[in-house]
Write a structure and sequence with these properties.
Elements lengths: L1 E8 L10 H15 L1 H9 L7 E2 L7 E3 L4 E3 L3 E7 L3 H13 L3 E3 L2 E11 L8 E6 L6 E6 L2 E6 L7 H17 L7 E15 L2 E14 L1 H10 L12 E3 L3
């Protein structure tokens, strides 16, 4: 299930480039407004959150050194989850709080659209990311294990991406996953993102994925890679 929000923002507002953390906080605040118990349970869960979201889409924009401004005051946000309770709880929170805070600035929901899923998921599809894919691994450096961000050029990138999706599927549906897929990256753009005080390297991608349609659909719904609930790994189908 997916939702698209059309939001109004003051034209003089500068949206910082690194706004994912603030979007995540806004989402949790809306969940808490609707259902405090559900929001607390989701936030405290240490495994996977099973939702993802895009960066703010600013179609009519100017870009400066400090961030982005909207010429017409209109921005868009997309959210996706395989869990219908997540989106219904979030949308209920929006109706109770018509003014949303994203960091230090306010936005006003103008329109909420529930997007239909693709008519069918085939065994070969092409996606582009709406928020970059993040993956990490542990590597030994000077006798100590250190966290390393993975880019598509690293040999562990695809195996880690595949295993992450399978792990999420098995935990969400509480059953073994014997499905598989292959992936061909058509283009990759490296990004350096700040989340609080931490910088991470991640990748905007266009890629073709081929395999079991049910597993492809699940990746489409909950996001590819890690930290989906912090605004990583959301995709949409790329049409020719």
């Amino acid at each position: 299930m997916r939702a698209e929000l059309k939001l109004q923002i003051d034209k003089n507002t500068t949206i910082p480039f690194n706004h994912q953390y603030h979007l995540s906080s806004m989402i949790y605040n809306a969940l808490h407004t609707s259902n405090p118990e559900y929001a607390a349970k989701l936030h405290s869960y240490q495994k996977f959150k099973y939702f993802t979201f895009s960066w703010l889409d600013v179609p009519n924009r100017t870009v400066g050194k400090d961030g982005i401004k909207s010429r017409d005051g209109i921005v868009y946000l997309k959210l996706s989850s395989p869990d219908d309770e997540f989106l219904s709880t979030f949308l209920d929170g929006l109706f109770q709080e018509p003014i949303l805070k994203i960091g230090t600035f306010e936005v006003y929901p103008m329109e909420i659209k529930i997007n239909e899923m693709p008519d069918s998921f085939s065994n070969k599809m092409t996606f582009k990311t709406l928020s970059p894919v993040y993956l990490k691994t542990k590597e030994e450096v000077d006798g100590k294990l250190k966290t390393k961000d993975l880019l598509p050029t690293h040999s562990k990138f695809f195996p880690n991406l595949k295993q992450n999706l399978i792990n999420k599927y098995e935990l969400f549906y509480n059953k073994p996953c014997d499905m598989d897929f292959e992936m061909e990256i058509l283009s990759a753009e490296q990004k350096r993102i700040q989340i609080k005080e931490t910088f991470t390297r991640c990748s905007h991608l266009i890629f073709t994925i081929q395999g079991d349609p049910d597993l492809i659909r699940f990746g489409y719904e909950c996001g590819f890679g890690e930290k989906n609930s912090m605004g990583f790994g959301m995709v949409e189908e790329k049409k020719n």
